[in-house]
Amino acid sequence: MKKARVIAFYLPQFHPIPENDQWWGKGFTEWTSVAKARPLFRGHYQPIIPADLGFYDLRLPEVREQQAQMAREAGVEAFCYWHYWFGNGKQLLEKPFNEVVNSGEPDFPFCLGWANHSWMKKYWNNSVSRFCQDLLIEQTYPGEQDIDEHFYSLLPAFKDKRYYKIEDRLVFLIFAPQKLQD
Questions:
Q1: In the prediction, which pLDDT does 181 show?
Q2: What's the number of CA atoms in the CB half-sphere (13 Å) around residue 132?
Q3: pTM to 2 decimals?
């Protein structure tokens, strides 16, 4: 019997980007949401403040190295970095992963997960007493040329010796494969 493999999802939202400044306010990261959390029921412990690495910033290589070391110690085999490609070359939150590939650090296996979904601003509108959402950035599938551009943008990662494989095949997740036409 084969043993289970542990691959940790790696969320790149823990550093500021201009789009989040525009949509949510200057300096917004997911840490903003973490710190604002409040208990919703008895025994619901919130906010849960980060311990070992604190409110880290993924632009810092030493943070990424510390995360890899913690993952090794916990038996994690690889990180699966969420990757945002919205079509026509539009990416968001790509900086930490690009730095991992370009620098060769940390020396820790990785793969990619394409988070192929639109981003929505979701909120409760008191004036109409209902849940609302506004489109922030739309996921598009412009066609074959975009597929090629997407692939070639990821090729350096696919060729990296650290890229995680199962039975000598690259692991690449797609969040919503049913949204792809083919």
A1: 82
A2: 9
A3: 0.91
